[in-house]
Specification:
Blueprint lengths: L27 E7 L8 H16 L3 E7 L10 H4 L11 H19 L2 E7 L7 H10 L6 E4 L2 E4 L5 E8 L7 H6 L3 H10 L4 E8 L5 H22 L2
Parallel strand pairs: 1-2, 1-3, 3-6, 6-7
Antiparallel strand pairs: 4-5
Length: 234
């Protein structure tokens, strides 16, 4: 698929030289996901575009696939989507077949990616419902996890996930704020359940607290994304 990286005037993306001596797969697959509903005003959309651009500069042989969940979200999880996962294969309705096809496409896309970049804004103390709907579709027993005699086991091991997180207020610096936060903590939990332990957060926090606070938050996020991508190239 053709991929075009957005250009952001507000924050420059530093080009990180690619490392050619470190043994890696020739082609990496990166899945770029946005979920913010605010379009060009979205902080997370700007950050994910910067992360992907920096990653491609550091890893030129990267194929990028883009998924915009605000524009193309799966329907909320229903029994029509659930039935094929219960082992039912005969007598499926047309609606069940269609919903299963959506889930199958999304889980295949996720499992084929080596790197996943997720834009996750902070809506009402959690993530957008569009992003939750995507997670509900890829949370499939036998595909992304399984239950064993020793408990659940994640089956999507070996991936790297970079989450671009934006928050209007500040929640990371106090016990009260941390107790109200169900965005990064939820993503860390569900990705860990899938077996993914390499999860990095690039956070812009306090972006609704005035121009100076927003500028500082974006500067800190820029520094964080450069560290994350630079570490991947060593």
């Amino acid at each position: 698929m053709h991929y075009k990286t957005e250009t952001m005037d507000s924050i420059a993306v530093q080009v990180i030289p690619a490392q050619t001596t470190h043994p890696r797969r020739l082609i990496l697959k990166l899945l770029h996901i946005d979920s913010a509903i605010t379009g060009q005003n979205s902080v997370t959309r700007a950050l994910t575009a910067q992360i992907v651009a920096a990653w491609q500069a550091a890893h030129p042989h990267t194929e990028v696939e883009y998924l915009d969940l605000a524009a193309n979200a799966p329907a909320h999880f229903t029994m029509d989507a659930m039935c094929p996962r219960t082992g039912q294969t005969d007598g499926l309705t047309a609606a069940q077949v269609a919903e299963n096809a959506v889930s199958e496409q999304l889980v295949r896309q996720f499992l084929s990616a080596d790197v996943v970049v997720i834009g996750a804004p902070f809506y009402n103390f959690g993530i957008p419902s569009q992003l939750k709907a995507w997670i509900d579709r890829i949370a499939q027993p036998g595909r992304t996890f399984r239950y064993t005699a020793n408990g659940p086991e994640g089956l999507a091991k070996g991936k790297k996930v970079i989450v671009a997180s934006a928050r209007g207020g500040v929640y990371s610096t106090s016990p009260q704020g941390q107790a109200m936060e169900h965005q990064e903590s939820y993503l860390q939990t569900v990705l860990g359940f899938f077996g993914i332990t390499d999860v990095e957060f690039v956070r812009a926090e306090g972006v609704a607290m005035g121009d100076d606070a927003k500028a500082q938050a974006l500067q800190q996020a820029q520094a964080a994304l450069q560290r994350v991508v630079a570490a991947s190239a060593t």
